[in-house]
Design goal:
The complex is a heterodimer.
Chain A (H helix, E strand, L loop, with lengths): L1 H10 L12 H23 L7 H7 L5 H7 L29 H7 L26 E2 L2 E2 L5 H4 L10 H5 L12 H4 L3 H16 L47 H10 L7
Antiparallel strand pairs in A: 1-2
Chain B lengths: L3 E3 L31 H27 L42 H10 L4 H4 L17 H18 L15 E4 L10 E5 L12 E4 L4 E4 L2 H11 L15 H9 L3 H11 L5 H17 L11 H10 L4 H9 L3 H14 L4 H6 L6 H11 L4 H20 L1
Parallel strand pairs in B: 1-3
Antiparallel strand pairs in B: 2-5, 3-4, 4-5
The chains are: A mainly alpha, B mainly alpha.
């Protein structure tokens, strides 16, 4: 199915198409794919025989939707409702399985996903900070970062193999975006997910060595030891419980208000 | 927990008595455990009196600093109890009263345990993930090299010092005052922490004023939280990480990261907290179940591991491993430890008073208290055969 769609695109000779002309539902789902396809549509025809580099291959696999083909070519299924094709699919729930797949192997091999990625900038020295984000709403930037260009790369605490690509093997520090090329949003996500993985014990790291002080040990101090309180016969304050007046006082007030007593 | 507001108050000590360091000893002895002697008794008396005064002073300072001082609430001075010295701290894990059973800190026990935890310098000083530094090169004579080597061994022994094994701490549940007159004035609890600098963690006064007016001492969890807020420790998190829950521990154990969990446990919890004891117990039991006793070999957790196994009588796997590895000394030490910790068992009763050789000691145990008699017998026979062959050859 994937192969067919790619071939169809090639046959059409990279004719440009406008995303706006398609149904809004499709546009919402695949506008990212469509935009990128439209930009390289001319190049695909020329590179069909040469080995496809990871970037272009990744873009190619963002399929031209079935609806597009069916509307312009196949008239038989014109009335059928559009099939929602999710390229990420099964990897959404188990993103760690993607790293075992053939697709990943052919794209990246055994190297980290950011190998060979180069930012586009003016001059010799690259900018100090990465771009804020590659994906803004439905729009993806040109030359997206290694994490954004492949939608199957999902940072998850259980995706330990992927996370370890971003941690230095010798010092245990997370690589700077100047090395990995991630955009700021994805870098922040990576840091958060790595911390989560460490909190769940999925990633190991060097723990500071704990030295015990004798003063840290249990003591008989009253701060932590209960003081034996004597048994209380009276309430904490005398006026907490109902107080019975003395007989003299009672008599005195009875005499004072004898005219107003109801009895 | 949603409505807790934290307020701090520096409680100034009126009495700044000279603090004599009564507790420091490399054997982690706690105040109260003293050897006999009249002088010591007198000192004990003086100590108790001093403590009584200290109690009164700190309680009176607390009264002065009270936030809710209502004129109509006279504080009953006469109600304050006289301080009585509390129960002696016992560092043994077993709770039944026995006549002279060794504790973890006993020097003989420690010697035996440390001999079982072999000193493998390569393993102790293995490279770990840390900030990289350029290497240093030193030109040394043979003598200097020898000294450096000895220093390294000293450092390795320090790193192998086992963390303390303590009984679980008793929950704090003590009310200092019921002030119903101020009930309902505030919408949340207040926790008052003494943040004076030179006080030990265990001697800090931390109290809680509840919404209903009760003034009580803070529970252990509240104490730990407050201490971490005002005196944060490296590596310790304010909220307990989820990896210490049982369901996540299993996953970590399947990756054989037991040492990592124990390291995290040391930084996160106090040695007598229930979480510390639970995590250690799970770790040790999992190791014994999988038969992976070597994972903790030459680490500072091995003595505690062996101690736990012998106390709960689950050490036969370890014994079998020692016999397989031809480590008869360690196997005999294990049985010796068992006899020390369970003096009423048949094995120790039969071995008491006799001078048994290592093999005889193990045989005695195998015949009396062992659960896997056949396995241990076989291992012992195999050992005897191999040593006999070696001797003959």
């Amino acid at each position: 199915m994937m192969g067919e769609a790619v071939r169809m695109e090639l046959e059409l000779g990279g004719s440009s198409f406008r995303a706006r002309s398609l149904a809004p539902a499709v546009m919402a789902l695949f506008s990212r794919a469509l935009r990128t396809c439209s930009k390289v549509s001319v190049q695909i025809a020329s590179t069909v025989d040469t080995p496809v580099k990871p970037l272009l291959w990744a873009l190619q696999t963002r399929q031209v939707p079935v609806l597009w083909c069916s509307r312009y070519l196949c008239s038989s299924n014109a009335e059928a409702p559009p099939e929602e094709f999710d390229p990420v699919g099964r990897y959404r729930e188990k993103p760690w399985e993607y790293l075992e797949s053939e697709e990943y192997m052919s794209r990246y091999g055994t190297m980290p996903i950011f190998t060979g990625y180069r930012r586009n900038h003016k001059g010799l020295i690259p900018p100090q900070r990465p771009r804020k984000t590659c994906i803004r709403g439905a729009k993806i930037s040109g030359n997206p970062c290694p994490a954004c260009r492949d939608p199957k790369i999902i940072f998850h605490p259980k995706n330990v193999k992927l996370l370890q690509q971003f941690i230095c093997l010798y010092s245990g520090q997370v690589y700077d975006p100047s090395i990995t090329g991630l955009c700021a949003k994805r870098q922040k996500e990576v840091l958060k997910v790595i911390q989560e993985a460490k909190d769940y014990g999925l990633l190991t790291f060097t723990v500071p060595f704990m030295v015990f002080n004798p003063s840290d040990l249990p003591s008989d101090h009253i701060a932590t030891r209960p003081l034996p309180m004597p048994p209380r016969e009276h309430p904490w304050y005398s006026w907490y419980d109902p107080i019975e007046p003395s007989a003299d006082e009672l008599a005195k007030y009875r005499r004072m208000f004898r005219k107003y007593l109801k009895e | 927990m949603d409505h807790v507001k934290v307020k701090t108050l520096v409680i100034h000590r009126w009495f700044d008595e000279r603090r004599t360091d009564q507790r420091v000893s490399h054997q982690w002895r706690v105040k109260g455990e003293r050897e006999g002697g009249r002088e010591r008794e007198r000192e004990g008396e003086r100590g108790r009196e001093r403590e009584r005064e200290r109690t009164m002073s700190t309680m009176s300072t607390m009264m002065v600093c009270r936030l809710f001082r209502a004129a109509s609430c006279p504080f009953p001075f006469t109600a304050w109890p006289v301080c009585v010295q509390g129960p002696r701290h016992d560092s043994m894990m077993c709770t039944e009263s026995r006549p002279a059973v060794s504790s973890f800190d006993d020097p003989e026990v420690q010697k035996v345990l440390m001999s079982m935890t072999t000193l493998n310098v390569e393993h102790i000083f293995r490279p770990v993930k840390q900030a990289l530094q350029p290497p240093t090169y030193k030109v040394m004579t043979d003598k200097q090299l020898q000294e450096a080597h000895e220093k390294a061994i000293e450092k390795a022994k320090e790193l192998l010092t086992p963390p303390p094994v303590l009984p679980e701490r008793q929950p704090i549940d003590e009310v200092l005052s019921h002030d119903k007159c101020i009930a309902g004035l505030e919408a949340s609890k207040y926790i008052f922490t003494d943040i004076s600098s030179k006080i030990s963690e265990r001697e800090r006064l931390i109290v809680v004023r509840e919404v209903d007016g009760t003034l009580r001492k803070a529970t252990w969890e509240e104490r730990d939280r407050m201490m971490q807020i005002y005196f944060p420790r490296e590596g310790r998190q304010l909220k307990r990480p989820p990896l210490f829950n049982d369901e996540h521990l299993q996953e970590i154990f399947s990756q054989e990261n037991h040492e990592h969990v124990l390291n995290l446990c040391q930084t996160q919890f106090e040695p007598d907290s229930p979480d510390y004891i639970r995590v250690h117990k799970r770790c040790y039991e999992d190791l014994a179940e999988r038969g992976k006793h070597d994972l903790l070999k030459s680490t500072r957790y091995f003595p505690g591991f062996v101690w736990h196994l012998v106390l709960t009588k689950q050490f036969e796997g370890l014994l079998f491993k020692f016999l397989q590895d031809q480590a008869i000394e360690e196997a005999a030490n294990l049985i010796w430890l068992f006899n020390r910790l369970h003096p009423e068992s048949r094995s120790s009763v039969e071995a008491s008073g006799k001078a048994l050789s290592k093999v005889e000691l193990i045989q005695n145990f195998a015949q009396t208290d062992a659960q896997n008699v056949g396995k241990i017998d076989l291992a012992l026979q195999a050992y005897l055969v191999t040593t006999k062959d070696y001797v003959e050859a």
